[in-house]
TrEMBL record:
Alphabetized UniProt keyword annotations: Carbohydrate metabolism, Cytoplasm, Lyase, Schiff base
Function comment: Catalyzes the reversible aldol cleavage of N-acetylneuraminic acid (sialic acid; Neu5Ac) to form pyruvate and N-acetylmannosamine (ManNAc) via a Schiff base intermediate.
PANTHER family with a match to the protein in the record: N-ACETYLNEURAMINATE LYASE
Catalysed reactions, semicolon-separated: aceneuramate = aldehydo-N-acetyl-D-mannosamine + pyruvate
EC code: 4.1.3.3
Name the record gives this protein: N-acetylneuraminate lyase
Gene source species: Seminibacterium arietis
Gene that specifies this protein: nanA
Listed Pfam families: DHDPS
Length: 293
């Protein structure tokens, strides 16, 4: 198994204007991440991949292309979570057969599942696939908030390696690190990387690493080394960039930034706005000139 710590890009997917997968463009995004952003790995099938708007067949196709392009060059995590447990298991088996190093699954969302149901969901995906698992916790999108004791119950399953923590609750983050030192934490909010790393996270998984991966690694390494002032300087620049990206449309703007680097990052998938307006393109160009040249 490849190392799963460090800097992992939440992989963007290139779509054609009709919403179909642009394989050539997806391969270019993967190459850019590995060759230029020098990431330690890829988180495939996450929010950033616009995954929750895709069919099972399309999700599998993206897993296949990503593995085929990345081969064993970097760590590969497959996000297989779905509110349809049968789909999550099918995807988990598929990614495991392809050779993904680990699975991850978003907490089941939309319905108000009980904690017992959430635990059953993880235990069942793991039992059916035999692979290791990273819990994907993103309460602001799922509405699922788990506390310290609930993580402890999930961690009774030894195949759960830890959590991708996309939240700003640093008290919970610190409690998790202290209570379960043998479990890993991946920071999920790129704009909060410095405080998350200072609290001891083991890795970070982020959308903006697709274009800002070099700075992300600098923040990670400098903070780990205790060089907080230097890390903060880079976090400030990073957050100026992220602020601009968020205000202009998150995935759409990262795609436009990649296109300015010659990567065919394509369109977004409807019902997200598929195509950037002239104004959005112009903002992307300014962001590129100011922060990525
Ligand atoms: O895009 C989101 C959700 N969050 C990502 C990341 O946590 C998602 C984060 O990088 C991810 O890893 C995935 O693809 O599943 C943010 O985009 C970034 O910090 C800007 O807020 O909205």
């Amino acid at each position: 198994m490849k190392k799963l710590t460090g800097i992992f890009s939440a992989l963007l997917v290139s779509y054609n204007e009709d919403g179909s997968i642009n394989e050539k463009g997806l391969r270019q995004i993967i190459r850019y991440n590995i060759d230029k952003m020098k990431v330690d790995g890829l988180y495939v099938g996450g929010s950033t991949g616009e995954n929750f708007m895709l069919s099972t067949k399309e999700k599998k196709e993206i897993f296949r292309i990503a593995k085929d392009e990345a081969k064993d060059q970097v760590g590969l995590i497959a996000q297989v979570g779905s509110v349809n447990l049968h789909e999550a298991i099918e995807l988990g088996k598929y990614a495991t057969e392809l050779g993904y190093d680990c699975l991850s699954a978003v907490t089941p969302f939309y319905y108000k599942f009980s904690f017992a149901e959430i635990k059953h969901y993880y235990d069942k995906i793991i039992a059916e696939t035999g692979n290791n698992m990273i819990v994907y916790s993103i309460p602001f999108l799922t509405g699922v908030n788990m506390g310290i004791s609930q993580f402890g119950e999930l961690y009774q399953n030894p195949k759960i390696l830890g959590v991708k923590f996309t939240a700003g609750d640093f008290y919970l983050l610190e409690r998790l690190k202290k209570s379960y030192p043998d479990r890993l934490i991946w920071a999920g909010f790129d704009e909060m990387m410095l405080p998350a790393v200072s609290l001891g996270v083991d890795g970070a998984i982020g959308s903006t690493f697709n274009v800002n991966g070099i700075r992300a690694r600098q923040i990670f390494n400098l903070t780990k080394a205790g060089k907080l002032e230097e890390a903060l300087e880079i976090q400030h620049v990073t957050n100026d960039l992220i602020e601009g990206i968020l205000a202009n449309g998150l995935y759409l703007t990262i795609k436009e930034l990649l296109k300015l680097e010659g990567v065919d990052a394509g369109f977004c998938r409807e019902p997200m706005t598929a195509k950037a307006t002239e104004e959005q393109l112009s903002v992307a160009k300014k962001l590129k000139e100011k922060y990525l040249s």
